[in-house]
Amino acid sequence: MEVIHTVEWMKQVAREARAEGRLAGFVPTMGALHAGHLSLIEAARRDASPVIVSIFVNPKQFGPAEDYRKYPGDPEGDRQKLEQAGVDFLFAPPVEEIYPAGFRTSVNVEGLADRLEGKIRPGHFRGVATVVLKLLEIVVPRFAYFGRKDAQQARIIGQMAADLALDCEIVVRPIVREPDGLALSSRNLYLSPAERKAATVLYRALLRARSAMEEGERETMRIMGLMRQEFAAEPLASLDYAEMVDADSFEPIMRLTRSCLVLLAARFGAARLIDNMQVEIVESGGGAGGVVCTL
Ligand code: PAF
Predict the structure, then answer these.
(1) Of 6, 47, 141, 149, which residue is 20 to 30 A from 193 by alpha carbon distance?
(2) What's this model's pTM, rounded to 2 decimal places?
(3) Which residue has the least CA distance to atom 6 on ligand 1?
(4) Ligand 1: which residue has its CA nearest to atom 8?
């Protein structure tokens, strides 16, 4: 695996691959790699060659009171994982390479970026869209891979790629979970043993919502109420939101009549974690129809 630190060098390598008729698969990350990232790399290896991974902790997507300076990092461990995963190139630029003095441009995906995570973390998605577009411009991959755990991020990046007619397919891959259901996240490293146990409330709340929907509940207020009850019983958790939204617009829905997402965000000590579940409505000849939930 070749490790690349400059934009010009990365562009040159990407240009050469294209000149050879190769289609790159790209996995942008902020490091502290876990099995969720590795599942994106596996998918990239199946679809594309070369496989390029970036590690860049993007200052523009952190608010002033957030964990930019403390974001977990393990450069040597990450490098070994990427070697073992068969990655061809690691792009690990310093901040000044991506944001040189005088950098002024930002990308905003209107509407979608202001709700939920965007409301609690103002400017977060502007920072994400800006860096992702810049990385895609440097690497020019045929495919770029994102995890569904960050469902709003994935939706925003997909919208950006469509709006700007990017020649890159945005691939959104399933959530990878621990055996007890906790979604993998680099921020899980912040959890104390007691908080780690408590954090399974995210999964438990989603399961409770799923059971209610499978039993026929269609009023989102009631389903959200059940999830809040789960959190209320977990003293180490502080719920930011439990929402049900249209999978396309991310607008809240009142009744479950179409595909939607159940979204959760909560704090456990220093860790702020998110999770979600996709809900599809399946028609059953003349009856009320069922739901298929993907956790
Ligand atoms: O999901 C992440 O790790 C980051 O938001 C991303 C997409 C690498 C942009 O910095």
Answers:
(1) 149
(2) 0.97
(3) 29
(4) 29
